[in-house]
Amino acid sequence: MKNSLFFTSRKLLLLVALSALSLFGFAQQEVQSGPGDQNKLVRVVREATKQYLDVHNAVKDGYGAFLGCVSRSDHGAMGIHYVNGALLNGTIDVNHPQALIYEPSPNGQMKLVGVEFITDAATWLKNNNNQSPVLEGQVFLLVDSPNRCAIPNPFYELHVWAWRDNPHGAVVDWNDHVTCAHNE
Fold first, then answer.
1. Where are the domains of the chain?
2. What percent of the chain has pLDDT over 70?
3. Beta-strand (E) ranges in the chain?
């Protein structure tokens, strides 16, 4: 696929932090939700991302594969994150997730399974009266610094498994029903 994303160093660092923490499992938690309705968030995300069921539409809209398929033997997988660097701008909009998550299928196709909302913590807190991000009642996970990966910038993230059921809930990081077994 013809795909080139140009990231500022801050955006790239945020992506590296996300991927590194995902690979090493530091962002794992069973539930990261507030009093909101996870089902409502799933419905809203599905409506906002249905055009991305075809990965080619995601690429046309500026999303590109970042690293490989993210998996762990003890917590299932996340899949392949397709990130839109232009959306790593310190804002959160349910209609425009920063990352779309795809699972490679046996026939070589990419299947949309979820999304991830990501924002730099310092930028978010500065612009939002020091309040943590919340989307449809779901509180984002703060990945702080310093951390065992030596990532210097804290960030907030929220996974939403809108297109694949997750036995642990719709807003946890890892999904036991996602696999990287068919990743080429």
1. 9-160
2. 76
3. 64-72, 76-83, 99-104, 110-120, 134-135, 138-139, 141-143, 155-160
